[in-house]
Specification:
By secondary structure, the chain is mainly α. It is built from 17 helices and no strands. It has two domains: 93 residues, Fumarate Reductase Iron-sulfur Protein, Chain B, domain 2; 277 residues, no CATH class.
Length: 396
């Protein structure tokens, strides 16, 4: 006989779920249609039926430590077939938002990100900081004993913000972001293990290395998205954004490691010329992100006008707005740079850097964090034996 469970409802948590996209939560009457039609959920630990009742009861701790909220890709097959219109997909998305804010620190910054009226401030602050950094370039070079700008740079995007200064500017902030994300993932992994111990779940474990390979394969191939039927078209836009982002990350890492990367010595010049393989990769990746984000915006806008499923929340729209702004201002910088349109290219460069700064620094608090927590959950699910080698679906 299972051990009795003491339920301590968290009404505030439940109300936040309802306010952030789970307003139809109370319509669920536990028919289990959602778990039956979900192609990702399997026979062992099925979802989202159990998450729906936990959300109705306000069981915050159990939900935040539940690996299955991240295995859901919000394809909305469950919401499409729910006889009561409870929209389990939207409820799961609201729970994931609460999980992101729970595992991020400081919490107050996550609350700021959640308020649309504060978005201009989130962009204005990095603009001011970048202008101050440009103003401090000359005194810093004097203090450090000379210019650090490589001689191979013919015409920089802006000489007041050379590469060394940008690295020095971004490095501390990105280091803090990395620390916040690592600590969040560690707490998340610990809670996942505690939740399994509480539920008495003992799976056939797989090695961590094999689990990482299995999860990476599923993410890159979008295997779970491929099982969706109601909104299968969303898979292509997500693929474009994912591969575009990965391409830009590769180029950025190549640039940032220029001073000590042995593959670049004697041949590195930045900014890249238009026909550089790295510039071509960056432009293709940027175009992929632009097309993918535009398709996402179109789908959300159509859903909002028609009252269809998955019209999106501020959490979705803010991420798309920042991603689109970063890509569009990046292309604007490049065009104005090649045309030598002064001083507009400097203004575009500042705005581009500010949007990139906001997108990356706010990663632990925005929908961008899905990338980290979902990957962690998929690795954990494979590691604990929830999923078979034939993909990330539960073994039957």
């Amino acid at each position: 006989m299972p051990a009795p469970v003491l339920i301590k409802p968290d009404r505030e948590f439940r109300n936040r779920l309802i306010a952030s996209g789970g307003e139809d939560l109370k319509k669920c009457f536990q028919c289990a249609t959602c778990s039956v039609v979900c192609e990702v959920s399997g026979a062992s630990q099925p979802f989202p039926r159990k998450e729906m009742i936990w959300a109705q009861w306000g069981m915050k701790d159990r939900l935040l430590g539940d690996v299955d909220i991240w295995r859901c890709h919000q394809c909305n097959d469950c919401s499409q077939r729910c006889p009561r219109g409870a929209r389990p997909g939207d409820v799961m998305a609201a729970i994931r938002r609460e999980a992101i804010l729970h595992y991020s620190a400081p919490r107050w910054l996550g609350n700021i990100v959640s308020q649309p009226r504060l978005l201009p401030l989130l962009l204005l602050v990095p603009c001011i900081l970048l202008v101050l950094a440009a103003w401090a370039r000359a005194p810093l070079e004097t203090f450090l004993g000379g210019s650090y700008t490589p001689n191979r740079i013919i015409i920089s995007y802006w000489s007041q913000l050379p590469q060394w200064l940008l690295i020095a500017f971004f490095a501390p902030f990105l280091s803090l972001v990395a620390v916040v994300m690592i600590l969040g993932v560690m707490r998340f992994w610990r809670d996942l293990k505690a939740r399994d111990r509480e539920a008495g779940f003992i799976g056939q474990r797989r090695s961590l290395a094999a689990s990482i390979r299995l999860a990476a394969r599923s993410i890159l191939l979008h295997e779970d998205f491929d099982r969706c039927t109601s909104e299968h078209s969303r898979m292509n836009s997500h693929r474009l954004v994912l591969f575009g982002f990965l391409g830009l990350i590769v180029v950025d890492l190549w640039v940032l490691t220029a001073r000590f990367n042995p593959l670049l010595r004697g041949a590195f010049a930045y900014p890249f010329n238009f026909w550089s393989p790295w510039k071509i990769l960056a432009n293709l990746a940027g175009a992929a992100m632009l097309i993918g984000c535009t398709l996402m915006v179109r789908n959300l806008a159509r859903a909002g006008r028609s009252g269809a499923l998955f019209a999106g929340t501020w959490f979705d729209w803010m991420f798309l707005a920042l991603a689109l702004a970063a890509v569009l201002t990046g292309f604007a910088c490049e065009i104005l740079h090649y045309l030598r349109v002064d001083p507009f290219r400097y203004a575009a460069y500042i705005i581009h850097l500010a949007t990139v700064f906001a997108l990356l620094v706010l990663l632990p608090y925005s929908k961008f964090a899905h990338m980290i927590y979902r990957a962690t959950a998929m690795v954990y699910a494979a590691h604990t034996g929830r999923q078979s080698q034939g993909g990330l679906r539960d073994s039957e």
